Task: structure prediction
Amino acid sequence: MKLVSYREDDFDRVIQFIAHLNSDGAHHIGYFGLEPIDIRHTLEELEPPLTESFVLAVQDGELVGLLGAEIDADVNRAWLYGPLIEAADWHTLADDLYAAVRAVIPPNIAQHELFFDARNQHCQQFAERYGFKSRGDWVIYVLPRGGTLPAGSANAWDARFFEQFAALHNTVFPNTYYTAQQVIDRQNEHVKLLLATQGDDLQGYVFGKVDPEAGEGYIDFIGVDARCRGQQIGKRLLAALIGWMFAFPSVQHIDLTVSAENVAALGLYDSFGFARERTMRAYRTEEQ
Result:
């Protein structure tokens, strides 16, 4: 068994290895995706690139494990892509991989985060052994194309609402994976931020993206000002974003992740016909 840094010519076999294991809840890591096309796009977009952040475990020329990190200095966090291992001594290999990956994560990045299927007992034990703290269970929802949606209404992004948007985003999603500025900057033809406004007041927002090649959409955030709840604003925003996503003919389903404790949000998604695909667990630690 030896550990090696990822090289560009490893790309295809890494995708195949992830797709093979990630389809099994006992191995599943939430960040990768399931289908090879999803995994490919995920890996292509990672920062830093895989050559700087992924370590592979190889035995007799075969890939048997990997671990990598996506790093964002703006939010002071590294997301751990793995450990994903197909070997008898899972925990020893996971320890070795984590030691190698920690060596390439800048020491000023304090938070390391794991996100794995609730059935993944190896990762559960790994998290507990390293003192990661639970951030609760999360539900993965999927909405297939088809069916009737409620009426939606929303406005395009307007920079005059920036201060209100930043305050709402930080309130509803504190310490999340995109800052308010990153949400705004990511907008393009496949990434949309929609607002609910009344006069000069921001009532709520929704943010998501589509991957037409992979045939899917993903809803990242939906937030409504506490003063405006109970007015169907979230429902109208959600319907507007879903309508935009399904306007892409190749998009066949829309995914999202929500806290299992957020009863109101669960009810909203259930009412739209989202189906619960799996339950995930999130863990985070502060590096000393």
Q: What stands out?
A: The mean pLDDT is 96. DSSP finds nine helices and twelve strands in the chain. Residues 132 and 285 are 4 Å apart (CA to CA).
